Structures are given as C-alpha cells and as structure tokens.
Amino acid sequence: MSLPLKVIPLGGLGEIGQNMMVIECRQDIVVIDAGLLFPGNDMPGVELGIPDITYLEKNRDRVKAILITHGHEDHIGALSFLLSKIDAPVYSSRLTHGLISAKLKQASLIRNASLHVVEPQEKFFAGVFELEFFRVCHSIPDSMGIAIRTPYGTIIHTGDFKIDHTPADGIPFDFAHLSQLTRDGVLLLCSDSTYAEVEGYTGSEKLVGEALDTVIKEARGRVIIVTFASLIARVQQIINSAGRHDRKISLLGRSMNANIKMALRMGYVKDTENVIVSTKESRNLPLNKVIYIATGSQGEPTAAITRIANGNHPDISIVKGDTVVLSSSPIPGNETSVAKTIDSLFRRGARVIYSRIAPVHVRGHASREELKLMINMTKPKYFLPIHGEYRHLTAHADIAKGMGMSEKSVFVIEDGEVLEITNEGAEVAGRVPSGTIYLDSKNADETNDDIIKERISLARQGIIIASVIISGDKSSVIGTPKLMSVGFSDNHYENKTLKSASKMVQVLLEEKWLNVLDWDDIESKIAETIAAHIYKETRKRPIVLPLLETNK
C-alpha cells in the first residue's frame, strides 16, 4: 500500500497569524509559509508567537523546500526561527525575497541561507513535488498562490488573496494562469478564509487612493497617514498624491523606513518628483506642505502614531489643524488599543479619519463572492479552508457545501490535525505536535503556557507574600507572620482577612506543623491555608508565595 499524501497545518487554522502548512508525500516534505502571531491582551509580556515546529525538527532531513506566498509578518515572521533549526532552500517572489533577506541579515542567518527568487509560471521541483507560483492580488505586491503537483494530483494553495480588477500596482490576479494550472483537475483547494463571513466583494485598492487624495487635497494643515509598513502600493498612491498637491512626505517608524527604502531600491516604489524628505527637513516646511506616513495602525505601544498620540514622540507633536488618517482596520484583539489611540489623538486636537467614517482602507482578503469564484474556477475534489479563526473556516466550508460540494469532501481542521489523501479517499487521521511558542523578546526567549497563565493570574488577582521567621531550633514562630500583598487589595475588609490568615498560620505552625513536617511541606501548607482562607472570605485567588527564614 502506497504512503498517503498528508496535509498538516502547523499554524493559521484556528487563529489569525502564525501561518504554516506542511505538505508531505512519500519521504518528501514542503513547507508553505512561516509566520508569526501578534500577541493579544491575554498574553502579557509576550513579544510574539510562532508555530511549534517539533514535527519538522523530527523530520528535518525530509524537508525539501520552504515556499513563501508573500512578505507579511504572519507569513515570514517565523522564518528566522525555522531556518535556525532546519536547513532547507526558501523560494519566493522578488519583493518577498527582499523582505526575507533583510530579516535574515538582522538575525545573522543570511550567510548560510539558500534563498531563491521564483517568477510566476516558473516550474521547479522539490523531491516528488512539481511547484509553480501564480500571481494573486493582496495588500502587498508580489503576492502568490502555489500549485503543488503531487503523485495523487494537484493542490492549489491560494495564499492570502482578493480579486482586484484595478489594483494600485496595475498587476491583476492572473486568472488565465490559474485556469491553465487547474485544467487537468484539482485534487485539493486550500483557500484563504479570513473574510468568509463578509458578503459581496472586497473593494479595490484604487478606491483608497482616491479617498486619501481627497483628504490630502482638503486638509488645511499637516496630514499624518497611519498604515501597515507592508502596504507598499498604498504608500505609492500617497507619494503620487503628494506630488499632485505640492506636499513633501516624511516616513515615521523603523519598519516603514526600512520597507519603503527597500521598495525604492527594488523599483516597487517610484518617487520621480522627490517628495520623500527626512523628518528634520519636514520640520522646516509650512504645515500645509507636509505629509507623514507612520506605523502603528494596530495601536502598538512603541509605534510612531501611539507615541505621537501619547505626546512622547521625539520629533512630532499634534498641533491644531492636523489631520490623522488611520488607513487600516484593527486585527481582531487589537480593537481596544486602536480605539485608545484614536481617542488620544482627538484629545490633542487632531481631526481623525478612519475606516468607519470614510473609505480610507480596504481589506486585502476575498469576501464571499470572490471565494465562490475561486471554488468555481478550481472545481476541487476536496476542499480545505485555511487562514482564519474557526468561525471563518466553518463559514468558508458552508460556502463550498452551498455550491454543491459534499459533506465528505470538505474538511474543517485545526493546527496539528493530519488530512490524509489516497486514491481511495480522504480523511482526518491523527495529529502531530502543534501550538504556539511564545517569545518574550526578539532574542527568542521562549515562554510556555504555564508562565502566561501565571502572568494573567498575577494581573487579575495579585500576589501575597507570607514572610515567616522560625526560631533557630525550629520549634516556634518568632513574631506574627507578615502577609504583604501586591495587586490584591487595600480595602479594610480584605486587610482584615490578611490579618486573620496570618494568625491562623501562626497557630497551625506552632501546634501542628513545626517539628513534624519538613521545610517544603510547611511551605506548601502555608500557601494552601492562606489561599483557602482568602478565597472563602473574598472569592479571590491571589498567588501565595511563602518565605521561610530561621532566626540564627
């Protein structure tokens, strides 16, 4: 019996971010994307999250290629970590290659990395797989889908996509090429599900350019446009608008400067009228001649617009007459941070324009009608919704079923589950290790789930430190145990509860525990007793930390 074709998501199915897909056939493996997860408010102290690659580490000699669909962080952000563990060639489009190269240089991994630029319609091989990129539209240039030809049939992986007939860079979705790739049938379609709940079609990037041009034309003072550093086509539209309205542009934020400088170098952005100037130069210009393009669209604490909103940016302060445009929409989980930034900007006197009140942003992902078109064009035997939270995957599966696909041919799976395909059929067969590796810093200090849970508990319930001094012969307690709280409470009733817990511990130590239990057991008993008493009296569960000392 021949080995089945396996499709194994290690990230991106069940969450927004950390996209990574494993395709396995016979003894060969290809990996699609290696992205990171931006932490939510429920991950205190976490810088970022990346997929658990235990399965790939165990099979590192079988990994023949890493295929990158586009240059967003949720698709390339974990690549440095992956390449530090696994030596495999990386294939991507030209712009994506430039973004990857910059990332690997920063991580000191570029020297040993095997990076390859692949053009659409260029065939190449990795083990038993024949591979071919096809051009799609997304919110960053050079975005690609991938056709993976296997001994069992062709897999189409869309990457992130939408159907834009008037893209800002003038390069549309290549329907003709996709039609050729699917001519002999499609075994499995893996399709972007991010906006599977949204009816209709996603708007064109050209509409955003027109809206931003109107804002720039009508603004009386400075214009500060906040967007993702990766939205290179949008930056080009702002550059074009600045030239039309006799304004200069200054870039704010490290990632914005790095991305646009690279895009200028590679020809993806053109500044023929030399409108881009330094921040220093911009401060010497009349206010109505300046546009700033800033990072911080998700309310990140250290981003340029957040610092401006909080009044602690070293170069820029909000003045009367400023117009701030948030040319973005919050990623799920970031709504509160973005709302706070907007409020702070209003308080400082800025006029703030955002997507709820003006068409200054469009999504980079397909809505329901476009998803239907993709299914109709490819006519897959099996369908696997990818890239989205579970509700997005389910909504996308319902679309496929509504178009006539059978229940048995549509699979909603999550990270770690294994979809096996043979000539006889397809089924979910087991799982592999998966999950999120939390990093406390960009130096890749790993943090596990238990630590995250402890941080959340500390943030919500506080901590109580129980300091107990025992006599040198360990026969008695010296003084009353001191209970000090941090982040617990300071009201009268709860202070009274701490005092009663202290007396309880003293009595139990002297009457039951000393000279009977060993040191570790005494510490456990103190923690259990205090925790139980506090919960009984207050219904709170602070962390209790006993500190035992001897009076020598």
Overview of the molecule:
The structure is a single chain. Helix content is 32%, strand content 24%. It has 552 residues and is of the alpha/beta class. The strands form 5 sheets. It has an 8-stranded mixed beta sheet with strand order 7-6-5-3-2-1-19-20. Strands 8-9-10-11-12-18 form a 6-stranded mixed beta sheet. A 5-stranded parallel beta sheet has the order 14-15-13-16-17, with helices on both faces. α6 runs parallel beside α7 (232-244) and α10 (304-310) crosses α11 (335-347). The protein is globular.
Low-pLDDT residue spans? none
Average pLDDT figure: 89
- Strand numbers in spatial order across the main sheet: 7-6-5-3-2-1-19-20
* Proportion of residues in helical segments: 25-40%
Name of the CATH first level of the largest domain? Alpha Beta
Coarse shape: globular
Cα separation of the termini: 74 Å
Can you tell me the CATH topology of the largest domain?
Answer: Metallo-beta-lactamase, Chain A
State the helix count. Answer: 16
